[in-house]
Write the structure tokens for this entry.
Amino acid sequence: MAAILVMVVGLLIGAAIIVFTVLNPPSAPASSPAADDAGHSETSVRQAAQLVIDTYSSGSYGEFWDMWTTEAQGLIAREEYVRLFQLCPPPGPSTPFTITEVTVTGDDAEVQTTRPNETLAFHFVFETGSWRSVPSPTLRQDYQTKTVEQMVQERQAAGSCGTATVTPPATPPADVATTPPVTPPTTPPVIPPATPPTGSTPGSTPGSATVPSATPPTGSATIPPVISFTG
């Protein structure tokens, strides 16, 4: 009787184990620590950062924006970021940066770079399997609170802008007719009538002068006026 009881209990335990295994299959093996360490090694960060930094130093600012984290891309639109550098490009020629130091802390990395007359730090975050750039806290504040024109004015005042890209004037749409300028009609000048010289009388000969007659004293004979001509 005891043997039968033990057998029944064993069958029940076995059935319970089978049901638990079916309902809870073993999970897939987690990624090995070695693979994570390889993606977060200094060499891995340096290689990824060099590509991002070279894109920035070459002046490909739209492609550089594409290498930001998703959260950073929400700070400023791609078109506005490109326009910022069109209005205020970095002064001097585009010189590549040299990475001097890499510090990795979990999913964050700080990369120190240098080039002639400039030292710059780039911050990276490991996102969706790759290292992506993040603007500095100062730049983040500017992108969130200022317009492109305001940032350009501040950088120009600080002397950190090179020669701006000249934007050609907008071309009017093809379906808009251009009205030629209207030329006003030419009005002939009005010539005023000639004004006779002062002191002349109507009907007198031009160039002549009329000499008024002298009033003779009372009681004297009247002397006829003398008229002289100047030609």
